[in-house]
Amino acid sequence: MKKFILVFGLALISYTCISVRTDLGDVTVVESTNYDTAKAAILKVMNNQEIAWNNGDLEGFMQGYWKSDSLKFYGSSGLTKGWQNTLDNYKRGYPTKAETGTLNFVINDISRIENNNFWVMGEYHLKREAGNADGVFIIIFKMINGEWKIVADMSC
Q: What DSSP string describes 3-32?
């Protein structure tokens, strides 16, 4: 009986891991990159997001995110799945320059999770006519097809 439970448990764990891995779909796997190189590229993505946001370009801001139905965004409204749904939420929440204002990120930590997966912990600060907004975030970056993309975002 113990052997059956052990074999069943290992099979279940293997299935779960395979299921998670296939969630990325058709992406190119690359070898682990140098930390400093990855950090610089991730910061560039986030800088480009600030520029796009501050120009009122929400689609440009979203270029930092993985354009996939598997993208996950967790915020005050709960879990949103998918790139388009996330963009639609941004458009509803920030319809004019009065709401988008000026975005500034403060990065507190960038750490490798494993291989080409990193988390970024930081703060966002919005200065705007509609009232300033400040909060914190943790985002997960992954190298996908040669580009650093946000695959998960938790902002509050």
A: HHHHHHHHHHHHHHHHHHHHTT-S----PP
Contact 64, 144 (CB under 8 A): no
User: Over the stretch 82-103, which tens digit does the pLDDT of each residue have?
Assistant: 999 999 999 999 999 999 999 9
Query: What CA–CA distances, in Å, run from 59 to 51, 84, 115, 129?
Result: 12, 10, 29, 21
Distance of CA 23 to the CA centre of its chain: 15
Dihedral, CA of residue 37, residue 83, residue 102 and residue 106, to nearest 10: -40
Q: Are 77 and 156 in contact (CB under 8 A)?
A: no
Q: Report pLDDT for 33.
A: 75
Cβ neighbours around 9 below 10 Å, total: 10
If you average pLDDT over residues 52-67, what whole number do you get?
98
With a CB cutoff of 8 Å and minimum separation 6, the contacts of 144 are 24, 27, 28, 66, 151
CA distance 61 to 42: 14
- Give dist(CA 118, CA 100) in Å, integer: 27
